[in-house]
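Bench notes, afternoon.
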Amino acid sequence: MQCNYAECQAKNTSLDPDPVQKWAEESYAVVQITLEHEMSADGGGVLGLVERGIAAFESSNECEKDRFAMLSMSSWDMSEESIPILSHIPGNFQPTGPAKKDNHTVYSYADVSSAGFIVPGHADFKITSAGVAHTRSLTFLKKHLNGPYFDLEKIWEEHTWYEFGDRSVEKTMATMVQEPYVNHIPTVSLTSLPTHDYILRLMQQDDGGNRTSTTEQILP
């Protein structure tokens, strides 16, 4: 990732997290490498950073060591690569050949102007196109990395048990993403979008008020 992309999170006013957090929320172990433009031409320097990233993965007990992928948010000539590749091209790109080859799939996004469309806080960020690109990337990665796949019903049952059975606010929040959207608690924010801590306080206050007596879980 380019350094200027990594700095965009400070300007992010959307609910979308930065890419490294977003992929972590999909249950992938993630290492982010940021490069100045000049350093990207230094093969030895780039290799050193990649080796440090690999070492971080190898030292972790939270990930499998035989499956990995790389996401690059910049232009890169991959026409001769033999590994499976998915490309997201900004602008109305017209490929000279088929959009889908044996190992290379290309999608273009006519309503975006740079690779920054996927980065929240970037001037070119486009939330609708970013969402489509993320879903396509996630489908691609799950296919080639064999997951991770989840029992969503089991996860939902755990979440609702903590919220409506165990009545534990902290355990309920632990089943949610870092900045959750909660639609069954009235929230009003005149200055910014509700944050994790803000929603946590509301749930704690609501738990001591109306929720325990008036909220009912209907689905078994």
